[in-house]
Amino acid sequence: MSRNVDAIVVGGGIHGCSTALHLCLAGLKPVLIEKDYAGRHASGVNAGGVRQLARHIPEIPLSIRSMGIWEKIKDLLDDDCSFESHGQVLVAENEEELAVCRARVAELNALGFTHEELIDATELRRLVPAVAESCPGGVVSRRDGAANPAQATTAFRRKAEQLGATVREGVAASNIRYSDGLWYVDVGTETFAAPVLVNAAGAWAGRIAAALGEPVPVETVAPMLMITSRVPHFIDPVVILRGRKLSFKQFSNGTVLIGGGHLATPYQDRNETVLDWKSLATSARTVFELFPVMRSATIVRAWAGIEAKMKDDIPVFGPSSRHKGLYHQFGFSLHGFQLGPGAGAVMAELIVNGGSQTRISDLGIDRFHPTTLGV
Amino acid sequence: MTVAPKREDYDVVVIGAGPAGLAAAATAAEAGLSTLLLDENIGPGGQVFRAISSTPVTDRNQLGADYWGGADLVQALRASNAEVIHRATVWSLDRNLDIAVSIGGASAFVKAKRVILATGALERPFPIPGWTLPGVMTAGAAQTMLKSSALVPDGRTVIAGQGPLLWLLAAQILRLGGRIDRILDTTERGNYFAALPHAFAFLTSPYFAKGLSMMREVKAKVQVVSGVTELAAAGDGQLASVSYVTGGKRETIPAELLLLHQGVVPNVNLAMSADVEHRWDDLQLCWSPVLDTNGNSSVAGIAIAGDGAGIGGANAAVVRGRIAARAAVEALAPAAAAKLPSMAALRADLAKAERGRVFLDTLFRPAPQFRIPSGDTIVCRCEEVTAKDVLDSVAIGATGPNQLKAYRRTGMGPCQGRLCGLTVTELMAQARGKSPQEIGYYRLRAPVKPITLAELAAVPKSEADVKAVVRG
């Protein structure tokens, strides 16, 4: 006997949780299915960057939409998600890199986007006093910031449940099938049925898409992060580099998070990752060179979260090109956390209204599969 | 002087030079395997044989005959070809058997065909009100000072808790002329009855006579209060008094030093960080690795011996070390196994060494109120999280220790849960009406012990040092 709901959301990352919440806000009763627990993988263990800075142009509208939600996150979730907005700064380490920054900001301005701002050495030093003297400038996005990823994902899940979403954690969605206008999904001994299915299964979403006849070029990756013991406060904004793989953030408790995209080896089916310490050493060297104040800090923990990375580094977002009632929301390629709130809002609009004011047309799965659905 | 490992690859790497590690390394090396023993301390012995080669305590009676038995193990190791490095902190081990080790402020990487973890035990957390005050320390820490430096307390001293180590420490302090004002025994009265069915094995074990005479020796000199059901330390920034309840009556006594001990539990951090499967042990009330009879874990190539495999004591640890090493020899150099004692003989030794253990585990099973705190009592020292904070987080949706991190940062400090992990698991299990096995434990991550950014930055470069613009 199946239980009828309005929508089935597979995946309890920030995207699935946000979509479930926004469906509830639109008056629907969704079920959220998570094989582990909400925030177990990339959504709960990423760097927490809330960044519009340095995004691929096709996802900038979604990022800007999301930023507006982040700035009022407490009103939405009754939880501040430890969101703070001290800007994000992209540091150019030499004149060549600064020239690339200049061209990028000009390109965005021509498209009508003004959130990225070119800065010189003086402004860079004002924003990031601890940065090495040799850096000639960079780009700042002043409204950007950071949040606590596990806290935020958990808060979305909790609010969705409060507003009427059914949450199933600890059992994987299986036997996904379509019949007579309804999607059916088994969860252990239960079966749910709904006219709408959202595939927000992160690193596992590519398999679901492929099983439904929409394979996409996606791989499973596990970007590594490490965190230090507490050091005296020395930096407010999040810092990323133009040329080297590094992102850098000091929390209000003094700990410093070091990331940037060096990859661990994922063992997806065991929920495990094996870290690559020689690559982490590269990150440590970069920090050592750029932030002398950090040299005596101790590394207390390193980890990696499992997620999906598309070959073209932009997400798959929007309706299926083959099946009615199926929507994809995955492949955020190491930069999905900030997009979560906005993507959930837009996904709910697509499902409820059949469209959204936010421009997402370059993100569809139809870039891989010409649509077979009648328009 | 700092010595890095001589090679990059070894047949066997043993981690920890306590009884299990000493025996394992000597056995593997005797059979001709290239063997590296890495140990965090300045000399061999682990905790039970700490400072066996260097202790200033020369009167053999003061530390007891069992302690000096450790010297034979060290001799056997020195006679073998095992490479031994002390002050070597292993901070990472993974399922590929890649090991990262910090020696004298520099890190090296070695690879093993087999790893034998002999990381021993930790003292169980004892989270009573005031346990984080200066002046309150663990019995183990006091014993370390005693063995390494012959330091014993001379101010007003109270020892509280239970278990064999508590009585051993008390006897050692007294023999060295130290002061103990009172011993507060927290053994639950019901435990004596529960342990009774296992008493025969214990009576015929070597523990019995030794334990009895030690308790008699201590009781002749110190007032012992039994049946203590509540315990709290108090003071303004420094321990000033200890209060306790026995037979329904509360008493408060002044104290400058309170030594706490309620048994030891496996030190699982390195094994867990390598994704070795562990299960909750309902008798010993701790996590123990899932092992086969040779000590092999769920990760191919990683074996665990000694108290890290489940508390068994020093004699069992030695035999488990030999069994794990013999299994490694059988796998890597079968011909050489012939000159080692047979597995059958080793298993008989182990059965003998483990005799009486169930009795001790049952008798000294710590009472719930000393394992599962309430109210404002600190649970996580690194992040100053109280029992009430944990319960409040459970009430708004935290389901296990890993989810709790999102609410309270428990276990995210430098100790990686060594001082709070068991408490958090049991507290959440009780609050949610689940078993500790269902609640689970922190996912642990390297570095298992902190290293400096400068040390990591000094690690030799790899080919992967590429410039790509992928960001998180």
Kindly describe this structure.
The complex is a heterodimer of chains A (375) and B (472). With 375 residues, chain A is of the alpha+beta class. Chain A contains ten helices and 23 strands. Chain A has helices at 14-25, 42-45, 60-70, 73-77, 95-110, 121-127, 149-162, 205-211, 277-290, 340-353; strands at residues 3-4, 7-10, 30-34, 49-50, 88-92, 117-120, 137-141, 145-146, 166-169, 173-179, 182-187, 190-194, 196-199, 218-228, 238-241, 247-250, 256-259, 263-267, 272-274, 298-304, 307-310, 316-319, 326-330. In chain A, strands 5, 6, 7, 14, 15, 16, 17, 18, 19, 20 and 21 form an eleven-stranded mixed β-sheet that branches. In chain A, helix 1 packs parallel to helix 7 and helix 3 crosses helix 10 (340-353). Chain B has 472 residues and is of the alpha/beta class. Helix content of chain B is 35%, strand content 22%. In chain B, strands 1, 2, 3, 4, 5, 6 and 19 form a seven-stranded mixed β-sheet that branches. In chain B, strand 1 (9-15), helix 1 and strand 2 form a beta-alpha-beta unit. In chain B, helix 5 runs parallel beside helix 6, helix 6 crosses helix 9 and helix 11 (314-332) packs antiparallel against helix 12 (343-353). The radius of gyration of chain B is 23 Å and the shape is globular. The two termini of chain B are 42 Å apart. Strand 20 of chain A pairs antiparallel with strand 22 (451-452) of chain B.
Structure summary:
The complex is a heterodimer of chains A (375) and B (472). With 375 residues, chain A is an alpha+beta fold.
Largest sheet of chain B: 7 strands, mixed
Show the largest interface: A-B, 60 and 44 residues
User: What oligomeric assembly is this protein in?
Assistant: heterodimer
Task: Name the overall outline of chain A.
Answer: globular
Amount of beta strand of chain B: 15-25%
Number of helical elements of chain B: 19
Give the overall average pLDDT of chain B: 92
Tally the helices of chain A: 10
The Cα radius of gyration of chain B reads: 23 Å
> In which range does the helix fraction of chain B lie?
25-40%
Round the Cα radius of gyration of chain A to an integer and report it.
21 Å
Give the proportion of residues in helices of chain A: 25-40%
What is the tally of beta strands of chain B? 22
| Average pLDDT of chain A | 95
Terminal Cα span of chain A: 34 Å
Please summarize the sheet with the most strands of chain A.
11 strands, mixed
Give me the secondary-structure category of chain A: alpha+beta
User: Unreliable runs of chain A, pLDDT <50, ≥5 residues?
Assistant: none
Tell me the total number of β-strands of chain A.
Answer: 23
Strand content of chain A: 25-35%
